[in-house]
Amino acid sequence: TGTMKINSQGNLEIGGMDTVDLARKFGTPLWIIDEEGFRRNCRNIKKAFSLYGDSQVLYASKTLATMAIYRIVEQEGLGLDVVSGGELYTALKAGFPMQKVYFHGNNKSREELRMAICAGVARIVVDNFYELELLNQLCTEENCQQEILLRVTPGVEAHTHEYIQTGQIDSKFGFTLSDGQAMEGVKKALSMPGIKLVGLHCHIGSQIFAMQSFQYTSSIMMDFWAEIKRTSGCQLEELNLGGGLGIYYVAGDEPRKAEEWAKAVMPVVQEKARQHGLKVPRIIVEPGRAIAGPAGLTLYTLGSSKEVKGIRKYVAVDGGMTDNPRPALYAAKYQALLANKAEEKPVETVSIAGKCCESGDMLIWDLELPWVEAGDILAVLATGAYNYSMSSNYNRLPRPAMVLVKQGQADLIIKRENYEDLLRNDLIPERLERD
Ligand code: LLP
User: Fold this and answer.
1) What positions does the domain Orn/DAP/Arg decarboxylase 2 C-terminal occupy (predicted)?
2) Contact 243, 286 (CB under 8 A)
């Protein structure tokens, strides 16, 4: 990120804070979010799309949701994509304006739907027939009408890890376009008194570099848009194209700028609308990774090490798959450096192991570092997305703290968990009591 540099002590600095000082003050592992970087990413995307007309950027909460983060998202004028009662609750508690909240998810419960209706969220993104019925029933009971988008599976295979592909035909998400299910969903929605269909949604996957995937999707969605107009006379207003913009993690990654994303989809939407003689829809995008990912880094303290002669040197950190499960889950790769030796040249190749009791808990394979010693501070870059939000207490490790840095200020936005926190919900049934 732009606010990262090496300071006069030769230490890594972010947001005007020496990371070695941060490690000392707040302990490790430590998640750090660079406020200016996060805000800049929000602004760039918002600006890129606004150049083409009516658009709205939503921040995908699943990437990294805390009350402080929601406050920043609100200040930047973005809306919010939430996917659970928990994310919605967090947004409510942070005072986020509900008229800018979109509620997603492939199996929202009755309670979650009711919570969303009562909170007054802008849109519910309906995923399937079951939900359509359920929502209509709830709205009828509550005597209200909910504005919705229908999630469509456009049948696009984005070039990304198969676990984070979502737009292909064989997917658990959305109404399938190719077999007529989506059209059936539209007709059903249009006939329901508790529901007002205002548009469509799709999302093809995450960590996408190929802009053609977005382009192609926009074109498919606009053709469907026109088909809806033709067959039902209904002119929809809003097209949500999901998130998915990829970011830089390691050499070889070729992320595209927000402008390139907007430039890939907006002209297609406008041209298709013109071709079909339709009004250009309001375009919504809901990026997460591209906003939070590059703005985050994680600090660890190096501890034990082990050399397998002639093969490899393992060096262990005080965290691992509990604070960053992505390497274990997706074989995700990260770049890292020694924060306290940021100026020193690499002299050895080591593999960074987590501290969990599991061989798969490896954070980085074959990382080139200066001479490593126990006590060194390792900074893993671009950990703002899907790290905290996917963290766990595996092995009963307390979750780390998170600090927000900006211009020489550092504020705690998530407290470090302690052992008591781990026991918060533990109960011992009476019959197991000692006498
Ligand atoms: N909208 C919808 C409907 C989504 O399902 C997602 C991500 C997004 C937006 C935001 O996508 P982004 O802009 O962040 O790519 N845990 C995985 C990523 C899963 C993404 C799930 N959906 C990972 O760590 O790579």
Assistant:
1) 295-384
2) yes
